[in-house]
Amino acid sequence: MLVLGALLLPNTLPGVEPRSFTRIPAEAVLGAGVVLGLPRRPRVVAAVLYGLGLTALTAVNLLDMGFNEYLGRGFNAALDWDLLPDAQAYVEDTLGSGVATAAAVGAVVLVLLLAVVMVLATIRLSELLVRHRPRAARGALIAGTIWITCSALGLTLFGGPIASERAAGALRVHAQRTVESLRDEAAFAQEAKADSFGNTPPDQLLPDLRGKDMIFTFIESYGRSAIEDPIMAPGVDRTLDTSTKALAKAGFAARSGWLTSATYGGSSWLGHSTTMSGLWIDNQRRYRTVSAGDHLTLTKAFQKSGAWDTVGVMPGVQKGWPEEKWYGLDKLYDAYDLGYKGPKFSWSTMPDQYALEAFQRQVHGRKRDKPLMSFVILTSSHQPWAPIPKTVGWDELGDGSVFDAIQKAGNKASDIITDTTRSREEYGKAVQYSVTSLTQWLERYGTDDTVLVFLGDHQPIARVSGERASRDVPVSIVAKDPKVLDKVAGWNWTEGLKPDRDAPVWKMSSFRDRFLKAFGSTPRPSG
Length: 527
Description:
By secondary structure, the protein is α/β, with parallel strands linked by helices. The chain folds into two domains: 2-181, no CATH class; 194-518, Alkaline Phosphatase, subunit A, CATH 3.40.720.10. It has helices at 2-8, 26-36, 40-71, 83-95, 97-131, 133-153, 166-193, 224-228, 233-249, 268-277, 284-291, 298-305, 323-327, 352-364, 404-409, 413-417, 420-445, 462-465, 482-486, 511-518, and strands at residues 24-25, 156-157, 160-161, 163-164, 213-219, 253-260, 309-313, 331-333, 372-378, 450-456, 472-479, 494-495, 505-507. Strands 5, 6, 7, 8, 9, 10, 11, 12 and 13 form a nine-stranded mixed beta sheet that branches. Strand 7, helix 13 and strand 8 form a beta-alpha-beta unit. Helix 7 (166-193) packs parallel to helix 11 (284-291). Keywords: Membrane, Transmembrane, Transmembrane helix. The chain crosses the membrane at residues 24-39, 44-63, 99-121, 141-163. InterPro entries: Alkaline_phosphatase_core_sf, Sulfatase_N. Residues 291-460 form the Sulfatase N-terminal domain.
């Protein structure tokens, strides 16, 4: 049963149902034939290798389940090992270091135990087959004949083919995925060297934004599902409508559209770097390649022009972040630079409202010789969406201690993670909080020269956004100066903060060049 289960195990959680195991696996028939034809010592070696192969197959299928559930894609053996430490850090921040350590140790023990049990099972099966060689040979011949017949005729049972090659197919897919990833790495390195604005002189970069305070803000997991899903959308749409009216009262206008993100459910930095670089960065190796080079980012274009001071405000960064040079940031304010003394909210180190107020106090509100370009990454809408901060009076924020009682009264992450419906509900509330914090900050501190671009980095995890959800995220430009929005009139974006369903959808990687051209930059290719 263990061997057959491993051979027929699907790689998605919805696929794990009884009918998935009512198949005849070709790999079992072939394995029986090989074992019956070998002498004892080679037979034992073959059984051990077969058991280890099934262990690897099972581990990969389980990783596929996790990646499909959270990131909407399968596991990539060439790229995704680097994400496992991030997963452990997320569990530690969300459920505690004890749970994270137990999960890591448990995973290793489980794989080792599975390997031992699977090898013992395959050795035992091989001995049983040999002990009953005539009957086993007839059984293998009959099973093989049935498999060939069912395969040739395309016979099905419970909606699936009776003749299965699930294990071989899974290994083939992963092998192809690995080979394609290695080829992609070399091709992308060449692609990253070419840049349509790589040789643009400083005085020809963004001339139509000179004198403006420019702010690029990413809202964590702010995806299309937040605006269109029947559970999340009502509250989020009300927030967007209310915020649009409040901003209009303060003299701001907005235009909104859609961008298709390079990532899904996580790996936010891939969405950030894709938007800013104009390159499609959908895996960690691409990210490492481009961030180690000198490809012009949108933020760096402001720095290169010499007309702006450039800063990054990243409350989610808690360790050294060398990418600040690639992004072109004169100064980075991380989790330890913003003066927060309140509690963490699961993964999020501080509420967005506090991060924005600290940004105003330490950076945006100070007098300077040049206008400011700010790159702000908000984190309160990061999973597991428990506990969620609540908006307080802006004058009450202080050092963040005001959030102690709010954090203690909030939901426990462990209660939300295990409940899909509650996860969707709380996700919607978290997005409402982040949007409200950002738009209230703009009402309170924005000036005639403030220009805000804010967008989502990716959709929430597949368990929340739904099966086969799009990768689209909302993007908005907000400004008081009508000349700013006139520059993007040809984009045909929707008025207000909520893009229409049929508003234009662009790849996230196209935003950099469109933005640079819209505001007067002259293309001068390099590479």
